[in-house]
């Protein structure tokens, strides 16, 4: 019985602490250079698209665009997803000032978009 008690006591003991390494870990450099604005991009098919200047009036035909434009500190010149823009995390009450593109998702009215005089229109591949 004493042997069983010693065996159980040995099994329940805390393991020995791991030895401390004498080698120092090199710090990780996490600094990054600021991004420069680009006026040339490649579309999903690899076609290069260039704008004469950074776009100021962006019409968004998808919620992803609205989210991106607001995150960059801009307000879309027009949107097809006004309910998303009204979310407090995006524009909240200010979303009422953004013109809504006429039409339905994937069938937005081209004249409605053109009337907003956009520098750039962002949609989804295969839809717009």
Keywords:
about 130 residues, alpha/beta
Mean pLDDT: 84
Q: Main β-sheet, in a few words?
A: 3 strands, parallel
Name the poorly predicted regions.
Answer: 1-6
The amount of beta strand, in percent, is 5-15%
Termini, distance in Å?
A: 80 Å
Number of strands: 7
Q: What strand order characterises the main sheet?
A: 4-3-7
Helix content: 10-25%
For this structure, the quaternary state is single chain
* SSE sequence, one letter per element: HEEEHEHEEHE
| Rg on CA atoms, Å | 28 Å
The structure class reads alpha/beta
Shape call: elongated
Count of helical regions:
4
Topology:
Layout (H helix, E strand, L loop, with lengths): L1 H11 L27 E3 L5 E3 L7 E3 L2 H9 L6 E2 L2 H4 L17 E2 L2 E2 L1 H6 L4 E3 L6
Parallel strand pairs: 3-4, 3-7
Antiparallel strand pairs: 1-2, 5-6
Gist?
The chain is α/β, with parallel strands linked by helices and 128 residues long. The protein is 23% helix and 14% strand.
Describe the 3D structure.
With 128 residues, the chain is an alpha/beta fold. The strands form three sheets. A three-stranded parallel beta sheet has the order 4-3-7, with helices on one face. The protein has a two-stranded antiparallel ribbon with strand order 1-2. The N and C termini lie far apart (80 Å). 18% of the residues are buried. The N terminus is likely disordered.
């Amino acid at each position: 019985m004493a042997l069983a008690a010693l065996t159980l006591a040995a099994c329940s003991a805390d393991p020995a602490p791991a030895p401390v390494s004498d080698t120092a870990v090199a710090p990780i450099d996490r600094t990054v250079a600021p991004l420069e604005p680009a006026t040339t991009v490649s579309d999903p098919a690899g076609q290069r698209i260039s704008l004469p200047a950074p776009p100021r009036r962006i019409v968004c035909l998808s919620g992803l665009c609205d989210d991106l434009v607001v995150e960059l500190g801009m307000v879309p010149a027009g949107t097809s997803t006004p309910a998303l823009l009204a979310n407090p995390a995006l524009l909240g009450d200010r979303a009422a000032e953004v013109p809504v593109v006429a039409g339905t998702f994937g069938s937005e009215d081209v004249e409605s978009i053109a009337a907003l005089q956009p520098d750039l229109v962002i949609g989804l591949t295969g839809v717009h």
